[in-house]
Amino acid sequence: MRRSRSAVVIYFLVTFCKEFICQEQNVFPPTSFSEVPNGDMYQAEGSNKVLTCKTSSLPTPEYGWLKNDQYITNFSTTGYQFRFTNTKRNDTGYYRCEARNTLGALLSAPAVVTVAYMDDFENSSHIFNMSISSGQAIVLPMPPVKSVPFPKSISWTRNQIPLSVYDPRYQISIDGALVLLDQTTTDSNKIYHVTATNTHSAGLEMLGPQYHVTVTESGLTAVPASIVVGPKNVTVVQDVGDSIKLECICNARPLSSLIVRWFRMVNGVKTEVVDSIDFLLPVSEKNRTLTIKNYKPSHSGLYICEAMLLGDSKPVTANATLEVHGEYLCGVLRKLGIMHVRKVSSQISLCSLHRLIRDDT
Predict the structure, then answer these.
(1) Do 254 and 311 touch, CB atoms closer than 8 A?
(2) Are residues 129 and 94 in the same domain?
(3) Which of 20, 79, 110, 207 has the fewest Cβ atoms within 10 angstroms?
(4) Is 358 domain-assigned?
(5) Are residues 246 and 192 located together in one domain of the fold?
């Protein structure tokens, strides 16, 4: 009976403390973070990283961690750090810290962690034999490579000598392919190699397979204009300060007489695109690329590339659609906690507050 009375007394004292005495103490839940997890950057595969999350509260807060909204740690007062040791590819994701005590809980904004890596090119030891007639063009495709992010630096060599960026007969496409234009028999029996570098993965560099190109004489002194690599459809979310590039790689003989022009449909009217605040057309590239600067929804629409030889009356054309979504979508993505999107077409961008995780695997 005494034990029962003692239990009642203890319960009364605890309840009394909670209801009256403890109210006079400065107890409070976690309301803001003094340090939040830092993400939104690439981590080289095999590297180490620490995410830190700190707040103040009374009672002392416990910390727990979530990956892609799933709990991955138990709560503890010392768990304010999450450590990555020898990062692996499946560590990629968005991480949140939750701080809590008996009075409430606080959830941090997501921190994106993207593990950067690059594998060997597929068929890296293979020799591809290709042939064309003089005056024609040929595309040496960028071999498939698993890389996150997509290699920032792509270069090509011919017989182990870097190709000149000033030679208009050699163009590297947005996707990294090498386009050989207006080839002659002196270009025959050459070996081409591609090298890709992932600057976010400790400068990892990979050498691709060999392309052996043979050029036979066609006897043609003039070749009409043709579009070898045309612009591709692009869907993006408005990203302040960013730009989009469309390309139109064309062949003809002679190349010096090739004329390339860009147009866009504005309110149903075909309007020529000229160098301006919004558009960049490098003269050195003879309008091969069209860069849309600081793109916004008003830039959406149909873009047309036209190519012809000087003196021709009818051009060859290729077109692509640009679709730019407004910044309002960024707020929706943030509310939903969506931190990555899959590639819709040739290029895609996410709001400046978020890191794009390209799904190239």
Answers:
(1) no
(2) no
(3) 20
(4) no
(5) no
Residue 121: name the closest of 144, 92, 89 by CA.
144
Task: Determine, yes or no, domain membership for 256.
Answer: yes
pLDDT single digits (tens) 66-95: 999 999 999 999 999 999 999 999 999 999
- The residue among 100, 117, 134 that closes a domain is 117
Q: What domain range is 305 assigned to?
A: 223-336
Angle at CA 70, nearest 5°, toward 66 and 76? 45
Domain finish residue from 88, 117, 146: 117
CATH label of the domain that carries residue 277: 2.60.40.10
pLDDT tens per residue across span 158-175: 999 999 878 899 999 999
pLDDT at res. 361: 32
Considering the domain boundaries, does residue 240 fall inside one? Answer: yes
Question: What's the pLDDT score for residue 285?
Answer: 84
Q: Which amino acid is at 97?
A: C
What is the average per-residue pLDDT within 237-251? Answer: 91
Residue 162: how many CA atoms within 13 Å on its side-chain side?
6
Q: How many Cβ atoms are within 10 Å of 234's Cβ, its own excluded?
A: 23
Task: Find out whether 345 and 235 touch, Cβ atoms under 8 Å.
Answer: yes
Query: Does an H or E element contain 253, and which?
Result: strand 249-253
The answer to whether residues 44 and 70 belong to one domain is yes
pLDDT (0 to 100) of residue 335: 44
Mean pLDDT of all residues in 176-205: 94
Number of independent structural domains in the chain: 3
Question: 210 and 184, same structural domain?
Answer: yes
pTM of the model: 0.77
pLDDT greater than 70 at residue 14? no
Based on the fold, state whether residues 113 and 129 are members of the same structural domain.
Answer: no
- Neighbouring residues of 245: CB distance < 8 A, sequence distance ≥ 6: 174, 289, 290, 291, 292, 347
What pLDDT is attached to residue 241? 79
CA 181 vs CA 178, 229, 298: distances in Å: 10, 11, 35
Sheet hosting strand 138-140, strand order edge to edge: 138-140, 178-180, 170-172
**Mean pLDDT on 207-215:** 97
Specify burial of residue 335 (Cβ count, 10 A radius: 0-12, 13-18, 19+): exposed
